[in-house]
Structures are given as structure tokens and as C-alpha cells.
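Entry 14. Structure prediction run on the chain below.
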Amino acid sequence: MTEEDIEKENAAITKAYKELLKVSYTTLSDDDKKLIRKAFDVAIDGHKDQRRKSGEAYIFHPLAVAKIVAQEIGLDGTSIAAALLHDVVEDSPDYTIKDIEKLFGKTIATIVDGLTKISSLSKEKDMNVSLQAENFRKMLLTLNDDVRVIIIKIADRLHNMQTMASMRPDKQEKIASETLYIYAPLAHRIGLYNIKTELEDLGLKYTEPDVYNDLFDKIKESKEEQDKYIEEFSEVIRNSLNKENFDYTIKGRPKSIFSIRKKMLKQGVSFDEVYDKFAVRIIYRSDEINEKFYAWKIYSVVTDHFRPNPIRLRDWISSPKSTGYEALHITVMGPKGRWVEVQIRSERMNEIAEKGYAAHYKYKQDTEKEDNLENWINKLQEALENPDTNAVDFVEQFKLNLYSQEIFVFTPTGELKSLPKGATSLDFAFSIHTEVGMRTRGAKVNGKLVPLSHELQSGDQVDILTSETAKPNANWLDYATTARARGKIKSALKEDKKRIGEDGKEILRRKLKQLKITLNEASTNELVNYFKLKTSLDLFYRVGIGTIDNTMIKSYAASRSNALMSFIKNKITRKATIKKEDLEKEEVTAKYDSLVFGKEEEKLDYKISNCCNPIPGDEVFGFLTVNEGIKIHKKNCPNALSLQSNYAYRIMQAKWIDSSQQEFLAKIKVTGIDHIGLVSDITSIISDNMHVNMKSLSFESDDGLFSGKINVVVKNNTIIKKLLEKLKKINGIDKVTRV
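Output returned:
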């Protein structure tokens, strides 16, 4: 770099630093400014020899993270200083955590230490096969030190996502999958809705770039028409609000690309068929006493002009979400017969919605003892403390609770409890206390006896009936949906299984002794294999409950004494199995010559996964399974994010190279209005296409509507796309989708 370049870069660094102080959401005292300046100087020194992949000085990254923390999340001077220092200990040999503690005190040192641990976990993961899920669990343990660790980590991830263009595509995809899988739900749960939205959009941009770019362009094209519609809608409401002398602002907010995509997939509709692509937000000024009254007054004004959808009213003012979010959401029928979501919030509510944690504390009254974030961290701690939970199961359960909508139910004494949507009476029992859950015998909802699997609704009053003799059984896992309940039930069942297993081991030892066989590691392994089990505990447990009885143990002893015959038998069985599998494979995947793996484009054996059924031309990746070799998944497979995030080291790059000689099975679903000759129209289009062979079809007609499933064999996805286009043109057909 020339002197001139260095000078320019230094000027840009100084400008970024000054902007950081200017945009801070909280008012910075002189002490705060001194602290931030000191942290900035240490960060400059610690990163002096470092550059990012894009070529710019590394210091721009901690400055950008600190700016997100200060402006978008609104944390205090301590957090801004910690954000500036978040990579110093990890990247610079000149600074240790002890040095940071000496310079900045214990609080900042704890936060920086937590952030350093998370970063070292990510590095460790690339070197060996430690699971991302396990790292995530460890990462959440840092919440116990200071919740700001996770918040700064989310800001760090946001900036990394914003500046990922210069990375390798495989690295981009891995980081984006991890973001969608873990960081976006976390941001949502902490109440950082703006950041969650940006993380989701950026995640989609790198996991499904074609889909993202297509939707981005379509939103851009429709922006002018949309702005005009919002203005027309707002004008009607403005006139009435002005008459009532409200101090307010109205703005139209487009829905995120990710949420539009999610809606398209969930409802099976195209972009043009998604009606609520935007929401109108009314933000009013009010003192805290009149907030609720004004919100309902504005609701009344809006519904005077536009008819509301009664099932789409969300009152989070009377019962705020556990993230602290408060607002009134209504969906009304706007001009031209389009549904419009209207969000009504006070300025205070709006700040909490945008800044989450920070604004929640700014407006907190001393008299308020209830702290939703603290409650959430305590609940989380219980889940983390259960060492028996498999890491991937833990992440899956945790995610369920992160993204779930909430319901509010009452205890018999009238206390309000918040539970995830879909929670059952058994979940409620465990939410009161673990011991209540363990001793649950039944439940009464609104005075009526209900099963434990009964799904609760908002407003239900629930009374749990307990008994000293009641205890969890395996069926309870079918009734429980929350991580807390499932975790406790699994632990109880495991303890039960261990106890029965110990008795079973003793019974097995005695029975084998009678057959002149010693129970040791070798014979235990033989028995596990013989009964096709996974672990020795499974074996002892089955002996304990009697599903492996005397006769079965004698059969094992007989097979052991005639090992040669057993070996020959196995050989024959194995051959027969392979032939059967080959026959099945041949029908779906034909010859194994069109899919290649890795940079060297190697040809390897693989299986097609049933969850997404890819065919040539689809964007795919290989996943190395434990027992079934390589399985092929589509990149937009429902399981792709989970696999790429939790098992990044097992993902293999894969692509189709030449599929002209192969044939693949594809499933098509059609729906529409029934009329005479419709089936004939469909079959003639498929028959006329020489590259498509129909395997099976089934149609159902119900009150003038029909739905059909067609299985066809095609050579690649270009052919299937053409076929779908032709089917769409048939009179009466509403939707054609590939399953």
C-alpha cells in the first residue's frame, strides 16, 4: 500500500470511530466515551497487522460490530467497548483475558472471554469432527455469564453475513445455513426482530441465490405500485386520526424476502398470489397510562373504514410476548379486495420491538419484578443442565421453543402462564414444577376432564391432578411438545431403563451360566449383534422386562456353538439382500454415472434420499450417513439446513454432469375445478411428450374440486419443467407442483 492509501484508510477508520459515538442509542457519559476510546486504541493495536479477505484493515470489522451493538441493538458503553475488543484476545498474541481484565475490569473481561470461547469452538469444529450442535449448546452456556455475550455474537454474525461476498461458495453456504438454523431464531427470541429479518434474508441469499435474486427483482418491480397502494390506504386513516388529534406516523413496511418465500412454500402459491407482501405500521405518541386506550381507539378508527378479519386479531398489549414485544395487529380488507396487516404500537412499544433487550430495560419500572429475558435464561439453563440430551436433539427442541408462537393460559388461582403454541396439558404440568409433571395423573381444562395430550388454547384455565403412584411412561413423549417437559420425561425414562437394565444384567448372567457361557464384553457384544440391538443397555433392559426370554437366549447359545453354519447362512442372506437392494436402486437411480462429487468430480456410489427425491438438473449435495453411505439431497430440501449446520464435515459437494441416458421418478400434484374430459386432457399431454413415461396416476373429486397425483419417469428436470408448464395451461387446472 502507498502512503496515500494508508492515509485514506486511517481517515476512514477515524470517521467510522466518530460515527460510532454519534449513533449510539443510549446517552454516553464522559466515562463511557473514555472507555470506548481506550477499547478502540487496544483494538487498533491488537489487529494492526490483520486484513480481512476483502483486503480491508481488520479493525473495520470490530468497529462495524460495535456500531450494530450501539445503533441497532442499543446497548450501553460497556457493551460497545466489549464489541470493539471481541476478537483481540483470539487474534493478537499481545493480549490475554487477564490483560483485558486489568485494563477494563471484570465485566468486559467476562464478555470478551465468552466471545473468545465461542470463536475458538468454531475453529475447533473445522479441524476435527466436533458437532456444530454441541458447540451451540456450549455457546448458550455463556448466557449464564452475561446475556450480552450472545447479543454481541449476533451482531458479529450479522456483519459477517453482510460482508461474505469474498468468501468461497462452500464456506458461504455453510455459514448461511448455520445462521438460518441458529442465529436468526436466537435473534427472534431475544426480540431483535430487525436483525432477525436481515439474517434470514442474507441466509436465503447464500443458500438459495436464484430464489433470492428472483424475489428481490420481483419486489423491486412491484415497489412503485405497492407504495401507491400504501399511500392510498394510509390517506383514508390519516384524515380520521387527524380529527382525533393523534400525534402519530404511518409507514408501509415491506415483508422480508425470506418471509414471502416461506409463505409461498407453506401455502403453495406464486409470488403474485401472496397478498400481504407488506404491513402498515401506525406509531403513536402517548404517556404510559393512556397507551392501551389509544391503541384500541386507533383500532376503532381503522375498522371504521376497513372490515377486519376476526380470526387475525393479535392483542399483544394485554398479554405481551415473552420477548417483551407489545403491539396490536389486525388484518383488514383494504382497497381492491386485498388483505392488509396493520400494526398499532406506541413509540415505547416500537423501540422495544426494534431494540429488544436494551429498550426493555430503558422503560423498565423499579416496581417491575418480572423480567421475561431473565425467566427465559433460567428456563434455558434447565435445558442445558440435562447432560443426557443428545446435542442435535437439544438444538432441534431448543429451536422449536425459539420460534414457537405463544399462548396464555391460567392456573386454578388465576395466575397467567405463557406456553408455546401447540402445548398440551402435560407441558403445562411440567411448566408449573418438575415434580408436578412427574406425578401427573390427569388434567381438567375449564372444569372438564381432558387427556394429557389435550392441546391448550389461549384463555384456558388448567388444573393438574396428581398422584403419588403416577410416573412417566414412554407414551408421554407423544403428548409433550416443550423442551423442558420432553427433557425431564426422557431423563426419568432413562433412569427407569437403567434400573431395569441392572436387574436384567443379573438375570442374563445367571441364565448364561446355566448354558456354560460367561457374561463378559465379548459375549455381550455377540448378544447385541445377535438380537440386532444398538447397545448393551438395550440388551439388559429387554432381558429385564422379559422381551428376551429363556428360549431366545438358548437359540443364541445354539447358534454360538455352530458358528460355521451361522457364517454360511449369513453369507447367503447377505447376497439375497444385496440383490433385492440392487433391484430397488435400479428403478430410481438407474446407472451411477451422472453424479460427481467434490472438486475432483469423482464418481461414487450413492442413494437418493426419500425426503426430497432429487432428479438430474436439481441443485444437490451429498451427505455421508453412518450406515447407508452417501445420500443425495436437494439444496432446498427441508432437512438441508439442519444437515449443513450440524454435520458440516459430512457434506460433500455434488453435481449432475450427464443424465441423457438415465431415467428418474418424479411426482406431480395437480388441483383444480373438475369437469368432463379433464383426466383425458392430462393423460393426452403426458402421452404426447415422447420423453415422459407415466408410471401411475390417481384422481379424487370432491364437490366440484379435484386433486390428482401423477408419477412419471423423466430423464432430467428440464423435461419435467416443460411438462409442468403444459399441464398448467389446461382449462380448469389451478395448481401444478412437483412433490
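The chain has a mean pLDDT of 79.
Filed with the rest of this week's runs.
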